[in-house]
Amino acid sequence: MEKVCAGCREGSTGRRIRSWLPVAGYAALIFYLSSLPHPEERLPKVLFEQAGDKLLHLIEYAVLAALCYPAFLRAAGPVVARRAVALSILAASFYGMTDEVHQAFVPFRESSWLDWVADTAGAVVGALGASRFLQVSPAEGGCVDRLGERVRE
């Protein structure tokens, strides 16, 4: 469970929006790539030749969960911040599920529950990895992560 300073206050609306912009942008990229009937035509062939489909799903959703973690940590109150890992996993896994439903309607693509399992495994890896990297500690009267950013103002 994350360590959250008791003295941290909820941040401004602008900070909340900025915290979620990387998540929204990356989710839009996932949606775009899922909309392509033949994504292998637009992406480097080495991704499909050297890495398996499930590994690509795992990496894709590890990144999404890793982006969600600081957003939950910085853009919400202490109750949400304490659950940032679980919420990041749930959010990325849910998006993976909706992505698989979306792919069922894209020509030449197929939906697979095994892809969703790989998405969820990636979400676990990404959220736990981000929580290890961005540990929160009290410093100078506020909450500061390893990158020196204030978690909440």
Protein architecture, described:
63% of the residues lie in helices and 4% in strands. It has 153 residues and is mainly alpha-helical. It has a two-stranded antiparallel ribbon. α3 (53-74) crosses α6 (113-133). The protein is elongated and about 45 Å long. Residues 5-10 and 138-142 have low confidence and may be disordered.
What's the structural blueprint in terms of helices and strands?
Layout: H1 13-35, H2 45-50, H3 53-74, H4 78-82, H5 84-103, H6 113-133, E1 137-139, E2 142-144
Antiparallel strand pairs: 1-2
Q: What overall geometry do the principal axes of the alpha carbons give?
A: elongated
Helix content: 55-70%
Report the total helices.
6
Uncertain runs: 5-10, 138-142
Mean pLDDT, nearest integer? 82
Summarize the structure.
This protein has 6 helices and 2 strands, in the order H-H-H-H-H-H-E-E. With 153 residues, the protein is mainly alpha-helical. It has one domain (13-144).
